[in-house]
């Protein structure tokens, strides 16, 4: 048995998402690029690149990773490029998307000849969290004024809209695309490609995939554009777990169990959004608050029920631990960094990365 903590990426589960993504390409013509900001565990890119069309990025390092490790197209996007990185970004990408007209103008000369796009902010979104809402008041994420965009239209061949966030509702997606068309349709018609961003949970159970494909195809046909999607979470949802071991139990008004991991260090997004982790199916009369081993008082994964009282040495498995977790892990408290293991399609489990004290030391100086 592998030493905990470790993330376990299950390729068979990943494959289910990949097959839906390939179905969407076949039936709608839309290409899907993996959003590396969500998931950049390159050990499983060999599987993913057979079903997806490439990657999209949020920085120089992500664009380089995409180019180096994932077949297909490499899109570069960043909220703002620095002068000293733009040459390398251009050298490692097939298309570059600027976040603002200011950046497009600043790098107009150096990016001449490269397919260029602009991020457009349609000022509508589906986010329930202000921190994750690209359409929040005073948002810096993209240009919103059709008049200003029209003035630079000759310099670009595509737009990127990213306004869906964890959107499971096809009707809401459709409604927002209608709004985008009303406001920007006359400009979209002058483009060659349109990225509709990420945040669309089309690989989820019961998502109306055929209606989604028809809508994407109708959009592409109407404006004669190549549509791109940038799935992050939708590509890797339900594929990965974080495996931990109970180190201690206490009673302090509630049963508490401390595990060899930390929500702050290893599943940070749950802490930011104040959500509970998901435990592998378990039930029973014994309720425990499962806590991390960092010194943060609120380092709590959640409350779960178990058939038996928990004991040191028991193994627990947190589900759905791929998206925005491994990319955000950190060395807070010097807690041992989870290894990365991959469950191959034949069922064998391969340890692909271990971290040790040297990695901790090298992280700072
Ligand atoms: C521009 C862009 N594309 C794609 C994504 C991926 O979104 P998700 O992981 O929700 O699919 C994001 C997420 O923030 C994004 O900002």
TrEMBL record:
EC annotation from Swiss-Prot or TrEMBL: 4.1.1.96
Catalyzed chemical reaction(s): carboxynorspermidine + H(+) = norspermidine + CO2; carboxyspermidine + H(+) = spermidine + CO2
InterPro entries reported in the protein's UniProt record: Ala_racemase/Decarboxylase_C (IPR009006), De-COase2_C (IPR022643), Nsp_de-COase (IPR005730), PLP-binding_barrel (IPR029066)
The protein's required cofactors: pyridoxal 5'-phosphate
Keyword Lyase appears in the UniProt entry: yes
Keywords: Cytoplasm, Decarboxylase, Lyase, Polyamine biosynthesis, Pyridoxal phosphate, Spermidine biosynthesis
Function: Catalyzes the decarboxylation of carboxynorspermidine and carboxyspermidine.
Oligomeric form and interacting partners: Homodimer.
Family: Belongs to the Orn/Lys/Arg decarboxylase class-II family. NspC subfamily.
Protein name per UniProt: Carboxynorspermidine/carboxyspermidine decarboxylase
Organism: Balneatrix alpica
